[in-house]
Amino acid sequence: MNRQTFVADAPAERLDVFVSEKLGVTRSAAKKLIEDGCVLLSGKEAKASHPVKAGERVEADMPAPKTLDLTPEDIPIGIVYEDDDIAVIDKPQGLTVHAGNGNLSGTLVNALLFRLKSLSTINGVVRPGIVHRIDKDTSGLLVVAKNDAAHLSLSAQIAEKTCAREYLALCEGIFKEDRGTVETQIGRHPTDRIRMAVLPAGKGRRAVTHFEVVKRYAKGFTLVRFRLETGRTHQIRVHCRYMGHPIVGDPVYGSKKQKFELKGQLLHAFRLSLDHPRTGERMTFESPLPAHFKRVLDILEKSERG
Q: Which of 16, 85, 90, 135 is flagged as catalytic?
């Protein structure tokens, strides 16, 4: 353990925010340290939400870094952009972002270790470089940090909602409204722990998704553009089910009778906008729809033409 001590020279609204800033780690990492009992406020354990007063002492024990053998693998991935600080990846459907549940191979991280010379270390040995993720069967863009300074900048942009993430999805049914916003609480499903669900007020975490209809198809489908304001697990998929318009091909939240012989949901992260961590330049990246998504739209277009 490496113990670091700080004295607050000004009040802070939350202990996890204070620890995050002082240690140079993400807020989620700071929260975990607090929950694990590695942080003391004036000699006592406290909740992550506890305010810090000016003059109070905060002691933080940083655990020794874990070692884990992740093997670089020559897995095909599209690198849309790369420099010394970031890489923007166009992830194919079917590729898991990082290792989990004992699975240490065949992930985007394995591919990144093979293709990139450096990755940030803030998210630990299992998720080097990973600032945000998209589901295994969701395709499209995500940004990877190549050093810790870039990671902190990108994490802050996501928290402050200046990093814009937009998706396209083909949904079941016809949307009545041309555009709108869904705001709910999302958390773990009360009986099925693999799934997420919309929960009653006061439970779960706030989740906000903005949507806009791109095209309605006579066969009973709607192509929709989504913009995330928050980034909860499975957020767009859960909100689509909540609205009564599950995403076509979704094996978890969609219809039991799947259509078009798909391997997963038709959800694609097509646009990503961010401020470059070093230069501050506003950058926008776009990804065309993948072949499996275009195939289904072609079927619907042909049906429209009769």
A: 135
The topology (CATH level 3) of 2-62 is 3.10.290
> Is-catalytic flag, 135?
yes
Give me the pLDDT at residue 66, please.
Answer: 55
pLDDT of residue 64: 60
Q: Is 43 left (phi over 0), alpha (psi -120 to 50) or beta?
A: left
pTM: 0.80
What's the token pair of residue 182? Answer: 């869904």
For the segment(s) 166-270+292-305, the CATH number from 1.10.3720.10, 3.30.2350.10, 3.10.350.10, 3.90.1150.10 is 3.30.2350.10
207: closest CA among 191, 193, 187, 179? 187
So what's the pLDDT on residue 126?
72
Identify the band that residue 101 occupies on the pLDDT scale cut at 50, 70 and 90.
low
